[in-house]
UniProtKB/TrEMBL annotation:
InterPro entries: RNMT_CmcI, SAM-dependent_MTases_sf
Organism, as annotated: Candidatus Competibacter phosphatis
Gene3D superfamilies: Vaccinia Virus protein VP39
Keyword terms of this UniProt record: Methyltransferase, Transferase
Pfam families: RMNT_CmcI
Taxonomy of the source species: Bacteria, Pseudomonadati, Pseudomonadota, Gammaproteobacteria, Candidatus Competibacteraceae
Superkingdom of origin organism: Bacteria
SUPFAM superfamilies: S-adenosyl-L-methionine-dependent methyltransferases
Protein name: Cephalosporin hydroxylase
Length: 214
């Protein structure tokens, strides 16, 4: 990517997060089937490509919020004809969409007892993990350590919002997902960054598509 290309991509980030004058943040006006889904649509397209390729039986999402992304993931599994979404959040919300493939779980995504209770009895299966809860470095690092053993070889942990703390937006956020990924990869050689998942250039998850290779 040339410096001019980077300027264009960074400007797109700024516009998507902050909006044009008088419009408000565009990401906060993004919906999936009338449910708020605070994602970049280009990332969602990548998610469906990954799901179609690896065909997961289980998708684990941390950070449910209003349930839009969980519904999107459930609809992708509907196309496959099987699978389940386990989505974890510390807050319950009765307005979230109901879908037979979505299992809403209240609790912390770094509660090892909770995660073990959800996953230890499951049989061998393809699993995809998407991290989108507390974006502080410490929290994401804990999630990565906790969930990495549950990810299937050839599948992914997707670390969302690695673009914050100046990568390129919200430069004053402080260490967050990007820095957690750096630390995780320095200590874990079972995962690599799959840059091919950033082919659309605009992604909320730069360096955040982590593929398990062994």
């Amino acid at each position: 990517m040339t410096n001019q290309d980077k300027i264009v991509v960074d400007r797109f980030h700024d516009l998507y997060y902050n909006g044009l004058e008088g419009t408000g943040p565009i990401f906060a006006q993004t919906y999936w089937f009338n449910t708020p889904c605070l994602k970049c649509p280009l990332d969602l397209w990548i998610y469906q490509e990954i799901i179609a390729e690896i065909r997961p039986k289980l998708i684990i999402e941390t950070g449910t919020h209003l349930g839009g992304s969980a519904l999107f993931l459930a609809h992708m599994l509907d196309i496959l004809g099987y699978g389940e979404v386990i989505t974890i959040d510390i807050i319950e919300n009765a307005t979230r969409p109901i879908h037979p493939k979505i299992n809403y779980v209240k609790g912390s995504s770094v509660d090892s007892v909770l995660i073990d209770s959800l996953l230890r009895h499951r049989s061998e299966e393809t699993r995809l993990v998407i991290l989108d809860s507390d974006h502080t470095k410490h929290h994401v690092a804990q999630e990565l350590e906790l969930f990495a053993p549950y990810v299937s070889v050839g599948s992914y942990i997707i670390v969302e919002d690695t673009n914050i703390n100046g990568h390129p937006i919200y430069p004053s956020f402080g260490e967050g997902p990007f820095e957690a990924v750096e630390e995780f990869l320095s200590q874990n050689k079972n995962f690599i960054i799959d840059k091919t998942r950033e082919k659309f250039l605009m992604t909320f998850n730069p360096y955040g598509y982590l593929k398990r290779i062994r």
